[in-house]
Amino acid sequence: MNIKYDAGKIIPGLIIFVLFMTFPIWYNMGNAGTIPNPEKPANGARQCVAETKFMRTDHMVLLNDWRDEVIREGKRQKIEIDGVHYEKSLQNGCMHCHANKEKFCDTCHTYASVKPYCWDCHFNFGETLKGEKL
Amino acid sequence: MDNDRRKFLKIAGLSTIAGLGAPAAFEMLLKGEAPRSALASAPSHGAAAAAPAGKQYGFVINTKVFADMPGLANKCIEACHSIHNVPDFQNKKDEIKWIWETKYHNAFTVENPHLAHNVEERNFMVLCNHCANPSCVRACPTKATFKNDDGMVLMDYHRCIGCRFCMAACPYGMRSFNWRDPRGVDKETGRPFIARINPEFPTRMRGVVEKCSMCSELVEKGGIPKCVEVAGNTGAIIWGDLNDKNSAINKVLAENFTIQRKPELGTQPSIFYIV
């Protein structure tokens, strides 16, 4: 095959190939998919430990900071927001309001395709661990 | 030909100078970088001895009381293992333990052919020694295990990569490795490895090392370690700050002859046994 003689086949072929490979990009253009809608706390709490905007983007940073403060520095005092005391803990703090992992955490994590390993050790109270509901 | 040799010698000379100078320059750069890392400046490096001003919590274990009160030791062990979600694999090879009993010859290495028979046969409660100079902390490549300001030797399971250097470094064998998933069930019987879960404490995952945490999660909120609580006022376990001259533990230590496990290694274990 020689480009000089077979251009009529090669060039359309290349165009079809490129269009086919980029199909997902232009097919989903301007479409962000189903926007996740994490469930609001069932216990009626409407105020988190920080601004919703901050929590949305930086909750993992906050959790890491809490982890270092609690484990390494032993700073386990509860934090007070609007007269409500919160434990600096995923399992004993966050999950008390955001009790449903599937409807809260997983909605965005699945959407963003991130797989945090929190629940390898920490408990998700909705899960059934060995048949025993927590 | 002559010209080539000249060139070669020039290049060789310059490379030698560069080679000698580079490490020094590199070191200077590194020094500038070091404080930027938060972990590098953490006060918890094990190589330094505990500051006399800081706390160093420790235990006195009265083996006579445990010998007189059969069943007490098991109560302490069960209480500890159940609040910390310690799995029971019922298999010596995979076993995870935070606190357990062992015979004199397993706990102490001092050879004494004329050891009193009742001491030789006695059970000794063993747990992490929370050494003032812990070798495990120095061995850990990720600072997953560290010494905190209260003198506790702790684990940050998030950072543990499961290399088990700490297990090799601990001269007391007080650390266990999760060879299996602690959240799993026995394939044959369907028995969960953690019989009753404490939902306030996490489990561990496969591939991390674990050990006694001196109940830091309770102590840091003003509580006392669970084993001490279970032993209660029997005097079997006394717990307190070894650096506080007026603490109850120092009073007990001043009045009783105690022994430590392998003190000759210089790890300065914080557990003292009354025999």
Plain-language structure description:
- Chain A is mostly helical.
- Chain A has five helices and four strands; from the N terminus they run αααββααββ.
- Chain A has helices spanning 3-21, 23-27, 52-72, 90-97, 105-111, and strands spanning 79-81, 84-86, 128-129, 132-133.
- A two-stranded antiparallel ribbon of chain A has the order 1-2. Chain A has a two-stranded antiparallel sheet with strand order 3-4.
- Chain A is elongated and about 80 Å long.
- The model of chain A has no long low-confidence stretch (mean pLDDT 88).
- Chain B contains ten helices and ten strands.
- Mean pLDDT of chain B is 89; it is low at 33-48.
- Chain B is extended and about 95 Å long.
- With 275 residues, chain B is α+β, with helices and mostly antiparallel strands.
- Chain B has helices spanning 2-33, 63-68, 72-83, 104-107, 117-120, 135-139, 165-169, 216-219, 226-231, 248-255; strands at 57-62, 99-103, 123-127, 145-147, 153-155, 176-177, 209-210, 237-241, 258-259, 271-274.
- In chain B, the strands form four sheets. Chain B has a four-stranded mixed beta sheet with strand order 8-1-10-9. Chain B has a two-stranded antiparallel ribbon with strand order 2-3.
- In chain B, β4 and β5 (153-155) form a beta hairpin.
- The A-B interface holds A 67, 71-74, 76, 91-92, 117, 120-123, 125, 129-132, 134 and B 42, 44, 146, 148-150, 154, 156-158, 183, 185, 192, 194, 197, 199-200, 202-205, 216-217, 220-221.
